[in-house]
Design a protein that fits this description.
Layout: H1 2-8, H2 12-49, H3 68-81, E1 85-89, H4 95-106, E2 112-115, H5 124-128, E3 144-147, H6 158-167, E4 171-177, H7 190-203, E5 208-212, E6 228-232, E7 246-250, H8 252-262, H9 279-308, E8 312-314, E9 325-329, H10 333-345, E10 367-370, E11 383-387, E12 393-397, H11 402-418
Parallel strand pairs: 2-3, 2-4, 4-5, 5-6
Antiparallel strand pairs: 1-7, 6-7, 8-9, 9-12, 10-11, 11-12
Helix pairs in contact: 2-3, 2-9, 4-8, 6-7, 9-11, 10-11
The structure holds pyridoxal-5'-phosphate (PLP).
Length: 424
């Protein structure tokens, strides 16, 4: 720690605060390492089952008929996520795109979507057409939307869910967001999600249950047993190496429907080439358990550090973590901005850039974002962002290595001390 401090001009007080937080985080961090060991074993077993070979990394062109790299990657993800089938594609532009494909692939005019973990992620508002009947949205195609909020303890409202399922026959799709996203609530454990899935199954067996799995992969030793799981490859399962892409995994019939939305009816999964190597997708999945563990251990360190400094944090230190986000409530704009700028300073890419709050499309308030990442916007890499509005919460996540996360903690705190925002 002393050597790092000398190299980075970190004051003794900051070194001591971070060391103390690290000591307190140790126990939770060693439990995170245990989860990573199980997940690495799961992943390696899947690689061997699918007989992954060098030829699977080769680029393809044109229609991509018999693209064995593409097809084997699908099978590999299905094995690892515990599903029948998967659609894993570099051409899926983002997590929102993957979620949109799943919703449009599964829902038809007259159907209703029912979100049972409160409002879905911000970017889905326009996909669903929640606030306006936006042209092209699900709503403009005649798909209805219904929502049930979680209570303060992040428990499902089982009575209301039953009532809706019994009364509204047109409900065809249940939507569950595993991670907290930009809400101040605990994320959902796999156990809790599986429990509500069993409950729903007793009431209706004709609804498709979709889980927004973003940020959740590999935080536990298995994934939810939903009909469909959806996620982004520049988050957890890309292991920091996948340069772009998304996945949809689940029941064969569901994945096929969604694949026919991704390409066209009649073509589905059979067509689609990639004129670059598939290697980063394979290698990223192989690295993902370790990289997710590094993110979780970093989040635990930040949780202790900023909780010790008197800020409200979620999850609380020592709480189980079901996604990679650490929320920190700063209570005022200046500390939020200084924190994000500190994180940017500790980045390997664009460290010299000073992030400022800006008017991001689709947001009501200005947002500040620190993202000095190798892959643009990749939030499995160390990053922080937050809307400039009360209570001025920073959403901190990622870290390809724990050692980098530790530097992030030192540099961001030093920045806040230098600006006299935090007194030690
Ligand atoms: C990131 C995220 C999304 C959307 O993914 P993008 O890649 O940003 O479009 C959706 N849901 C959750 C919970 C997320 O964390």
């Amino acid at each position: 720690m002393q050597a790092i401090g000398a190299l980075w001009h970190i004051s003794p007080a900051v070194l001591e605060a971070v060391s103390k937080a690290e000591m307190r985080a140790k126990r939770a961090q060693s439990l995170i390492d245990e989860v990573a060991k199980v997940n690495q074993a799961r992943v390696l077993a899947a690689f061997q089952k699918e007989k992954v070979a060098l030829r699977h990394f080769a680029p393809t062109s044109g229609y991509g008929y018999d693209d064995t790299g593409r097809d084997t990657l699908d099978a590999l993800f299905a094995d690892v996520l515990g599903t029948e089938d998967a659609l894993v594609r570099p051409q899926i532009a983002s997590g929102t795109h993957a979620l949109g494909l799943a919703l449009f692939g599964l829902l038809r005019p007259g159907d209703k979507m029912f979100s049972i973990a409160g409002a879905p992620y911000d970017t889905l508002e326009d996909v669903i057409g929640m606030k306006s009947n936006r042209d092209g949205s699900l709503s403009s195609w005649g798909v209805g939307y219904l929502q049930s909020a979680l209570n303060d303890e992040a428990e499902f409202d089982l009575e209301y869910i039953r009532l809706c399922l019994e009364k509204e026959e047109s409900i065809r799709l249940i939507f569950i967001q595993r991670s907290r996203g930009y809400a101040w609530r605990p994320s959902l454990s796999v156990q809790k999600i599986d429990e509500v899935i069993r409950y729903i199954r007793q009431i209706r067996d004709d609804v498709c249950i979709v889980v927004d799995n973003c940020y959740g992969e590999f935080t536990q030793t298995r994934e939810p047993q939903a009909d469909v799981l959806v996620g982004s490859l520049i988050k957890n399962p890309g292991g920091g190496l996948a340069p772009t892409g998304g996945y949809i995994a689940g029941k064969k019939a569901c994945v096929e429907k969604i694949a026919e939305r991704f390409t066209t009816p009649g073509i589905g999964k059979e067509v689609g080439s990639y004129y670059a190597s598939y290697q980063p997708f394979y290698q990223g999945l192989f690295m993902a358990p370790t990289v997710v563990a590094a993110s979780l251990k970093t989040a635990e360190l930040f949780g202790h550090l900023y909780s010790n400094l008197g800020f409200d944090v979620l999850p609380k230190p020592g709480d189980s973590r079901y996604d990679i986000i650490q929320s920190i409530r700063f209570g005022a704009p200046d500390p939020l901005i200084a924190f994000c700028q500190g994180i940017q300073t500790a980045s390997p890419v664009d460290s010299f850039v000073v992030p400022e709050p800006w008017d991001m499309p689709g947001y009501q308030h200005q947002v500040i974002m620190a993202a000095g990442a190798f892959t643009q916007g990749a939030s499995i890499e160390m990053s922080a962002d937050g809307p400039i509005r009360p209570p001025y919460t920073a959403y901190f996540q990622g870290g390809l290595t724990y050692e980098h996360g530790l530097l992030g903690a030192l540099v961001s705190l030093q920045k806040m001390v230098d600006q006299k925002i935090v007194k030690l």
